[in-house]
Specification:
The chain has a five-stranded mixed sheet with strand order 1-2-3-5-4. The protein is built from two helices and five strands, in the order αβββαββ. Strand 4 and strand 5 form a beta hairpin. The protein has a single domain, classed as STM4215-like. The longest helix is centred in the C-terminal third of the chain and has 13 residues. By secondary structure, the chain is α+β, with helices and mostly antiparallel strands.
């Protein structure tokens, strides 16, 4: 899966989606995704294979197992293993659930 394909799949869930951040204030739930880094495998001075580390962040007012499951199902269907982390951002009054994946 490519980064544009991931973006399209996330938009298909029906929530506002943006790369990195929105330019205007959004009411939760919404999703942001961001490339953290990339690495290439090189041979003969040419990149042969690239991996991209991506965080998908779900922001909600309250814990939402249903939306989390939608994202997990999307990742599972596309054979994208994930690592999950969750925090409550008290100042913003939101939960941030992060799904860390690698695209190849």
């Amino acid at each position: 899966m490519t980064l544009p394909e991931l973006a399209q799949a996330l938009k298909g869930l029906g929530y506002p989606v943006a790369y990195s951040h929105f330019l205007t204030t959004q009411d939760p739930p919404f999703i942001c995704y961001l490339v953290l880094d990339s690495a290439t495998f090189n041979a003969d001075n040419k990149p042969i294979h690239e991996t991209i580390s991506v965080d998908i962040e779900l922001y909600t007012k309250t814990k939402s197992l249903a939306i989390e499951k939608q994202i997990k199902d999307l990742l599972t269907t596309n054979e994208l293993p994930w690592f999950f982390d969750e925090i409550h951002i008290e100042d913003e009054g939101v939960f941030k659930c992060t799904f860390s994946i690698t695209l190849t």
